[in-house]
Design brief:
2 domains, 346 residues, 15 helices, mainly alpha, 72% helix
């Protein structure tokens, strides 16, 4: 529904969105079964499409004459639309960087298939996220300044399309959306690939039930069983589309919680001098970066739970409890053991 929304396609209800969602899931799964090289080609196409979108959008909004808002518009709270309270818009804005964690996550989980991963994976992650932040802020600012009818945009299901239609014309808006759909689909495939690699790596280390089955790979070295499992889970989540906003918040919260645990443990390891030697580090700035990361993750999780304490907060608690039950089903002989310890048993 989100991808179709870029085209201005609307749906009457969850039943109308299901075929689209299932079609995208099936296509993404086929690409991931085809192999990493095929997924990498799609990812490169998606990156090129995204760059073209950003460059074209920024260029057109800077070159084509159109009515613009004053710079003070960027700090406009929209009056009664948000109740004059800055905290509510801030709450929604915090959800966006939650999904930025997925780019770190995807980079890390695919890094085992990268040459000189210890150096190149962190560098790629930092450069991609910093550049995306800088360019993204500039692009969003230009889009907001191009708003001509604020009430209409705030009430629209496809606000970006409406802004571009009125600012630079529907022809460019349609081309922009067509290219954007490619970038969004590439992101979908990469997110599925991330889930596959997480599940397979846990199975390889014997840290999930049915590890022996899930860690199997095909003749093309594709973790086929993990791929099919993630496909099945994706279909189940697609059937839950009536609670899409809750699912999205819970997904962001899951990333935020996991990220918070990692950086907290990382800070402890740094202060105790127990972190292994690694070629990528930030020197004397490392403690400060760890502390800021912990604070950010705490604030993010608090805001996401605040958005819907019942569904998001309690729902996430149930997910954690379900994870604990799954963990307890792992045989004691390999539960919590490292891959080196288990090498002779799997």
């Amino acid at each position: 529904p989100f991808i179709a929304g870029w085209f201005g396609v609307t749906f009457d209800g969850p039943a109308d969105t299901l075929p689209w969602a299932l079609g995208l899931i099936v296509l993404g799964t086929i690409i991931n079964i085809a192999g990493v090289k095929v997924a990498a080609v799609l990812n490169n196409i998606g990156v090129v499409a995204e760059v073209l979108c950003v460059v074209a959008l920024v260029g057109v909004l800077l070159v084509v004459k159109h009515p613009t808002q004053p710079l003070s518009f960027l700090s406009d709270s929209a009056g009664t639309a948000s109740g004059g309270n800055w905290f509510v818009p801030f709450l929604f804005a915090m959800i966006l960087p939650a999904y930025a964690i997925s780019s770190f996550d995807a980079t890390g989980n695919a890094s085992e298939e990268t040459k000189d991963a210890a150096r190149k994976a962190p560098m790629a992650s930092v450069m991609a996220n910093v550049s995306s932040y800088v360019v993204g802020v500039f692009m969003v600012a230009l889009i907001m300044l191009a708003i001509q009818d604020l009430p209409a945009v705030m009430g629209s299901d496809t606000p970006v399309k409406l802004i571009l239609d009125t600012a630079v014309g529907s022809a460019f808006a349609n081309i922009f959306e067509a290219v954007a759909i490619i970038a969004l689909f590439a992101a979908l495939v990469m997110l599925q690939l991330t889930g596959i690699r997480v599940l397979w790596s846990q199975a390889r280390d014997g840290q999930v039930p049915a590890a022996h089955w899930l860690r199997k790979v095909s003749a093309q070295r594709i973790p086929i069983n993990a791929t099919l499992t993630i496909f099945a889970l994706s279909v189940i989540f697609a059937l839950w589309s009536s609670l899409l906003s809750v699912l999205a918040a819970m997904t962001a919260l899951a990333w935020g919680l996991a990220y918070g645990v990692v950086v907290t443990v990382g800070l402890w390891g740094l202060l105790q001098r127990k972190l292994p030697k690694h070629p990528w580090h930030y020197g004397f700035l490392s403690p400060l970066i760890f502390v800021l990361a912990i604070v950010w993750s705490v604030v993010l999780c608090a805001l996401l739970i605040y958005s819907d304490p019942t569904h998001v907060g309690i729902g996430m608690l149930l997910v954690i409890l379900s994870g604990a039950v799954v963990y307890m089903t792992i045989p004691k002989s390999r539960r919590g053991k490292s891959i080196d310890t288990l090498q002779g048993h799997l």
